[in-house]
Specification:
heterodimer; A: mainly alpha; 71% helix; 0% strand; elongated; B: alpha/beta; Rossmann fold; Alpha-Beta Plaits; 2 domains; 6-stranded mixed beta sheet; 4-stranded antiparallel beta sheet; 11 helices
């Protein structure tokens, strides 16, 4: 054809492709209200939990003898006997699940996913980008939760008594677990795509740790449950140390790899829409 | 070099073949008009080329490379069914996201360039959901044009547009192929519009390619005819047949094939005492060719 031109096709490397996909996701994350709403929710929830959710100051002080218990439990508790024991930074993983479901659901609902998959032949780009975005968002929520929790603790007059190293390890452990959780939620969402109502429900169930709590009801309070994402998230408690961080890191990375491989496989074997 | 080369491509949905052993060749630099009835497999083929659907079998090559090659796919722009934009984001934000997705270095400059091509410079800040259908289609083209695409795949880009919108879209398509030299695969039901821009045609039916033809070949095959109205149609028909013309009476007109010499026909009519109330020279175009081809297939 007379108007054809000499064409050169340079294959972009993995990091260039990922950079492109991350660029879109983070641009959207910072230019839409979704993340900011969840950051506010993550900051407000500990305040609500500590101040009123359990029905008054007297009851609150019974549940929390230390302000840092708003962030994490004193020791790993897989079997929950009281809902108040659950009300700590682990809730970020529920908010994260809902946020990721809305985020990915809109990719599919708006049809923008067509643009992404037209130009990105490698489907793992999508999985990895969304996982990193989700992990980043949940890590940010951990920060706002910490701020909200600290302020709430100060407001309710609870004592701040803890080994600072353990507290840092607990918070870092939960932030590290964000990666594993984000990969799980991304995996769920590439299955249910635009039907993000189902994804939200599933993420909620998994984020609350119901399956692990159910297993714990049978097995008892055993560290074997640390193999699960929820187990490791619970393990990052106020008695954490460097080993806790290592367990969280290994667990989070392994699950992230597993879910990314499975998600990429699903994306490459199934029609995009 | 061929921009698209498809061999024995198949795709089924619940046992029904939407694309059935399809073969297709789109030369580089062509504007390839992809024609077919609703449900003939046009959109499915386009989605397969873009990697949106997973084929059951067959081979797709883009510029001589497998269609899953990351280097080729990053040079494909597509507008399939809808623009694929976030409704609550502005036109500019949607384009920025696509520019980031493609890893373009000079993003703002590139966005301004494509906005100018699709004549949307003044509407860049409005939300995508506030745009009219014509504007949305143009934004879809702008998205596809970002990053110097080598291949543009446009699925019904002129559907639902008014006359003015169609004209603008036609001008844009001609402009981008002339000035940017990319190959365009365009499907449309509006054959009259397609005829004005396409250099090649592919006609698909029930998932199979039934004909691939260049615009030049189509032109050579096209027949001319004169449509005529007189005060005595059957008498005039007899006179024309006596003069060895191929004549057919259709839709209240006499259609005299393989001639465009209206002067001779008028002279012949007057000489035989028939009053001519209407006469027009016509050419069998893409639409007539398509209908003829389809009816032949139907009969077969």
């Amino acid at each position: 054809m007379e108007n054809s031109r000499e064409l050169k096709f340079e294959s972009p490397g993995f990091f260039k492709r990922l950079k492109g996909m991350l660029g879109v996701d983070f641009y959207r994350l910072f230019h839409t209200p979704l993340l900011y709403i969840f950051l506010i929710i993550a900051a407000l929830i500990p305040a609500l939990v500590s101040m009123g959710a359990t029905g008054g100051e007297e009851q609150t002080t019974q549940l929390f003898t230390n302000a840092w218990q708003i962030i994490a439990a004193n020791k790993p508790l897989y079997v929950i006997s009281d809902i108040g024991e659950y009300a700590n930074m682990n809730m970020v993983f529920i908010f994260g699940g809902i946020m990721i479901s809305i985020f990915i659901g809109h990719d599919y609902k708006s049809g923008y996913v067509k643009q992404l998959f037209t130009t990105h032949a490698k489907k793992q780009d999508y999985m990895m980008s969304k996982t990193l975005l989700g992990a980043f968002s949940m890590a940010c929520m951990c920060v706002t939760y910490f701020i909200g929790g600290t302020l709430a603790g100060a407001f309710t007059g609870l004592p701040f008594e803890i080994n600072a190293g353990s507290l840092i390890c607990a918070i870092l452990g939960k932030m590290i677990m964000s990666l594993g959780w984000a990969s799980l939620y991304t995996f769920i969402n590439v299955i249910f795509r635009s039907k993000f109502g189902i994804s939200i429900a599933l993420c909620f169930i998994l984020g609350t740790g119901i399956p692990v709590i159910g297993a714990a009801a049978v097995t008892g309070n055993t560290p074997a449950l640390n193999v699960f994402l929820y187990g490791s998230s619970v393990y990052a408690c106020l008695s954490s140390n460097a080993l806790t961080l290592l367990v969280c890191l290994m667990n989070s990375v392994v699950w992230a790899i597993v879910y990314n491989v499975l998600g990429s496989l699903i994306l490459s074997k199934r029609d995009v829409y | 070099m061929n921009a698209i080369e498809i061999r024995n491509l198949s795709k089924s949905f619940r046992g029904m073949y939407a694309v059935d052993n399809l073969n297709m060749t789109v030369p580089a630099g062509a504007i390839y008009g992809f024609i077919g009835e609703n449900g003939s497999g046009k959109s499915t083929t386009e989605k397969l080329i873009c990697g949106h659907l997973v084929p059951d079998g067959g081979e797709i090559k883009l510029f001589g490379k497998d269609y899953s090659d990351a280097g080729v796919r990053v040079r494909v722009g597509a507008l399939i069914e809808s623009a694929g934009c976030f409704p609550n984001s502005s036109v500019w934000a949607n384009l920025m996201m696509q520019a980031l997705n493609l890893g373009l270095p000079n993003r703002e400059e590139e966005i301004n360039r494509v906005l100018k091509i699709v004549r949307m410079e003044d509407n860049a800040r409005i939300k995508f959901k506030s745009c009219s259908l014509g504007m949305k289609q143009r934004i879809g083209i702008a998205m596809a044009l970002l990053g110097d695409p080598a291949l543009l795949i446009l699925d019904e880009p002129i559907n639902g547009l008014d006359t003015d919108g169609m004209r603008i879209m036609r001008e844009i398509l001609v402009d981008i192929t002339k000035n940017y030299g990319c190959t365009v695969l365009i499907s449309s039901h509006i054959l009259g519009e397609l005829e004005k821009i396409a250099t090649h045609y592919g006609i698909i039916r029930q998932g199979k390619m039934i004909c691939e033809i260049s615009a030049e070949e189509m032109d050579a095959r096209s027949r001319t005819f004169i449509s005529l109205k007189t005060n005595d149609m059957s008498g005039a028909k007899g006179v024309l047949r006596d003069m060895f013309y191929t004549v057919k009476e259709e839709d209240g007109y006499l259609k005299i094939y393989n001639t465009d010499d209206t002067e001779t026909i008028v002279g012949l009519m007057l000489k035989n005492g028939y009053a001519v109330s209407e006469i027009k020279s016509n050419k069998i175009g893409l639409e007539e060719y398509y209908i003829e081809l389809m009816s032949k297939k139907e009969e077969a």
